[in-house]
What does this fold into?
Amino acid sequence: MALNTFDVAAAAYSKAIEINPADAGGYFNLGIALEAMQDFGAAVNAYDHALHVQKDHWKAAFNRGLVYQKVGDHAAAVASYDQTLKINPEEGDACLNKGISLHQLERYGEALTCYQKVLNNTTLRARAHYHAANALNELRQHEKAIDFYEKSISLGYINPELYLNKANAHVHHGDPHTAIRALDAALEIDPEYVQAYDMLSVAHRRLRQFDVAAQYASHALQLQPGYAAAHNNRGLALQAMGQDADALVCFDAALQADADLADALFNRGQSLVRIRRQSEAVDTFAALLEKSSTYPYAIGYLVHARLHRCQWDHHASDVLRLQQSVRDGVLTDTPFSFLSTGATQADELLCAQRFAQDRFPAQAPLWTGESYRHSRIRVAYVSADFHDHATAFLMAELFELHDRDAFEIYAFSYGEHRTGAMRQRLERGFDHFFEVGHLTDRQIAQQIRSYEVDVVVDLKGYTQDCRLGILALRPAPVQVSYLGYPGTLGVEYVDYILGDAVVTPFEHAAYYTEKIVQLPGSYQVNDRQRAVAPETPSRAAAGLPAEGFVFCCFNNNYKITPGVFDIWMRLLAQVEGSVLWLLQDNDEAAANLCMEAAARGIDPTRLVFAARMGLPEHLARQRLADLFLDTLPYNAHTTCSDALWVGLPVLTCLGHSFAGRVAASLLRAADMPELICEDLAAYEARALHLATHPGELRGLRSRLEQGRLGCALFDTDRFRRGLEQAFRVIHERCRSGLAPEAFQVPA
It folds into this structure.
C-alpha cells in the first residue's frame, strides 16, 4: 500500500481474509486498495463486509460514504455518514461530508445544519464556513453567506471557487461592484479561470453594462469554446440589448454544448416569444418541461405562447393546471400573464406574492422614517414607458397640468433611450426628467432618495421591462402603484393602489396588499390632445367589405378566449353580411383564428385583420367599425379609451377582478353604463340587439360623440384635481405618522 502497488496489496489483503475471515481490518484495507484502483463497486462490498464483521467499524462506514460521493450516489452517501455518526457522533469529517452530499441533493437546509455542527471544529471550521456559505447562497440568505465566505477567508481557506461563489452572493445581494472585485481576486489566483470570466458577464449584466457582459462571456468562450454557460450568458446580454435573433444563436450553441441546460431552453423560448415566433416558442417550452417539469415559470410561458398564437387545443387543461400550480405554491406564472387565465382574485394575489418574493423581495429600506418639510409635495413617476407607449398616450397631459404651486414633478425613466415628438413632450412636461436606464435598481433608488421624493408612483407593476426592485429598496416615504398593472403587486413596500369604485371596490380589499384609493370617475387618466388622423380611410382601404355590419376588437390576440370567440361566431352567423375586424398580432394567430371560425361554421373570410400602424391612423380607421366587442376575463384598457375617443361604442362584460372591470369603469365615466353587461349571456344578447337595431346604435354613437369632451373620462383637469387630492391625503397621513389606509376621493 505504501508503495502504491494497490493490485498487489489487494491480492495480499484477499489472502489475509481467506486466512482470517473475521478480521474487519482486512476487509477495510482491501476496500482502500480497491478504491485506489477505482473499482468502486468492489470497494463498497469490502466496506460492507468490514461492517458485517465489526458493526461499530465507523471508518468503514465513513469510507463507504466517500466512495458513494465519488460515484455521485449522494443519497447512499448520506446513509453511510449517518451510520458513521451513529457509531461515532464526534466524527466531524462525516458530519461535514454528509452536508456536502445533502447539498448535492438540494437539501440545503439540512446541509446547513450539518455544517453548523462543525463550525468550531479546529481542523474543519474553515471548510465548514465555506460550505455553509454555499448552502446559505442556495437558501437565498446572501448577506449571511457573504459573512461566512469572509470568515472562511480569514481562516485561510482561499481558492478561486470560493471567490467565484462569493461573487455570486454579492450579485444576488444587489452588489455587482463588490462581486467584480471578488472575481478579480479569483483571477489573480488563476488568470484562466473560465467560470470567473463567465460570472463577470453576469455581474456586468446586473450593472446593465450589456456590451461589456457580452465581451466577458466571449472571452470565457475563447478559453473554453464549448462552455455552455458562457454561451447562455452571452445570449442573455444580447437579449437585454434587444438583439433576440443573435441571442438565439447563443442559446442554440449552449444547447449544442449541453443539451440538458434548462436555462438555455427557457431563455431561447423567451427570445422566440419576443420576436413573435410563437410556434417555435411553444415547442421550446414543451421541450423544457419534458426535461424539467418544475422549471420556474415554464408552464406559464408555454400556456401564454399558445394564447399568443390562439392555439386553444389545450386551453381548458392549461388554465386549470396554471391555477392549481399557483395554489400549490409553485413558481408557475408571471402575475401579468396570469391575469389572462380568469383566475380568482385570491389566486392572483398568491401569484403576485410568490413572484415578488422570488424576483423582488423587500430590501433594507433607504428611507428610514425621516420627515421632509418641502414647500411642495415631491412626486416621482417611475417607468420604462416615457415614449410612444400606451402609458404615455394616456398620461402626457396630466404631467403638464399638475399644479406646480403645490407639486414638484419628477420622472425617472429607466427604459431604452428614445427620441421623437412624444418623448420631447414628456421631457417638457416634468420639472425634472432623469434618464436612468443605465443604472442599477439600487442606484436609481438612491437617486430618488437623494432628491427627498415624498411620493413615488410606479407605472409598470409587473408589465414588460418592470423594475420593481427600485421600490423594494423603499426610497420614498409613500409608494404607490398606478395604471400600468391592473392588480395587486402582492408586496408590503407598496402602500397604495390607485383605482376607483368599479375596478377596486372596497369589498375586494382582502385581495390587495396595498390600500385602495378610489379616485372619482375612472381611475384611468386620458390625454385630450390625443391626435386622430384627419382622414378616415375607405372601407376598401381598410380591407372591409363595402356593405355590412362591422364588429371589431382591437385587443391583443392573447386576450381572446374560446368562450368569447364562440359568442362572436354566433353573432356573425345571425347578422347577415357582418364581419369581425381584429388586430393582426402575428400570422400564426390569424391562421388559427380563421381555422377556429371555420370549425364553427363561419367563412374565414369574414374575419378581417388590421395591421399595426401609428396611433393617429389607427384611431381614424376605427370610425369604420360599428361596435367594439370587448374580451373577458381581460378587458380592453387603453384600447377601450381609444375607441370611445373616436365615438365607437364598446360593449363589455363586467369581470370579477381589476383586469376584467376596466372597460366598465371607462364606460361609466363616459356616461355609457348601458353598454356594461353583467354576464356573457347578456353581452351576447345586447350585441345582437344593437347589431340589428341600427337606429338605437346610432343614438348611442351620437351621444358618445357629443358628450365626449364633457364626460369625466376625458376631463383631464378634473382627473388631475382628484389625483392631487389623493396625493395630499397620503402625504399628510405619512407626515402625521399614520399608517396607510383606504379611502375614497370625493368627486
Remarks:
- The first strand starts at residue 377 and ends at 383.
- The chain has four domains: 6-193, 276-359, 377-518, 550-714.
